[in-house]
Amino acid sequence: MKNANKTVKFLEGMEYHIGETTYDELQKVNIIYCQHPLMPSIEIIFKAEEEGPIQNLLKYSKENIYHICYKSVNPDESILLIKNDGFRVITVSKPKTAVLFNHKKVSFYYVRVLEL
């Protein structure tokens, strides 16, 4: 999204705690981490000054939910289990550290779930 103000206002109305804006120099995006005691945490990810991976998504939609995040103690095993269940897993971004998560590694995968 080009601007996070509307999303912040919406989440505040749903009683989310809105974190500070963090610039992730590795992902080249701005992120606001939002938490709620009863609902899933949400990352508001929006364009930074320099070009990054989110620019391609913004060409097609100004606002969207484009991924769901999962934490795994063994990501390689988790991916293997998904593949063994017959799903196609495509690496979008190999593991790299993320500022928002205290420089722990994150990676992104496309999982082909629905075929029409």
Low-confidence runs (pLDDT<50, min 5 residues)?
none
The CATH topology assignment of the largest domain is 2,3-Dihydroxybiphenyl 1,2-Dioxygenase, domain 1
Proportion of residues in β-strands? 35-45%
**Tell me about the biggest sheet?**
3 strands, antiparallel
Strands across the major sheet, in which order?
1-2-3
Q: What is the H-and-E element order?
A: HEEEHHEE
Through-space gap between termini: 28 Å
How many structural units, i.e. domains? 2
- CATH C-level name of the largest domain: Alpha Beta
Q: What structural class should be given to the helix and strand makeup?
A: alpha+beta
Rg for CA atoms: 15 Å
What does this structure look like?
The protein is of the alpha+beta class. The protein folds into two domains: 1-66, 2,3-Dihydroxybiphenyl 1,2-Dioxygenase, domain 1, CATH 3.10.180; 67-116. 22% of the residues lie in helices and 35% in strands. The strands form two sheets. The chain has a three-stranded antiparallel beta sheet, with helices on one face.
What's the SSE blueprint?
Layout: H1 5-13, E1 17-24, E2 29-35, E3 42-47, H2 54-60, H3 75-84, E4 88-98, E5 104-112
Antiparallel strand pairs: 1-2, 2-3, 4-5
List keywords for this structure.
2,3-Dihydroxybiphenyl 1,2-Dioxygenase, domain 1; two-stranded antiparallel ribbon; three-stranded antiparallel β-sheet; single chain; 116 residues; 22% helix; alpha+beta; 2 domains
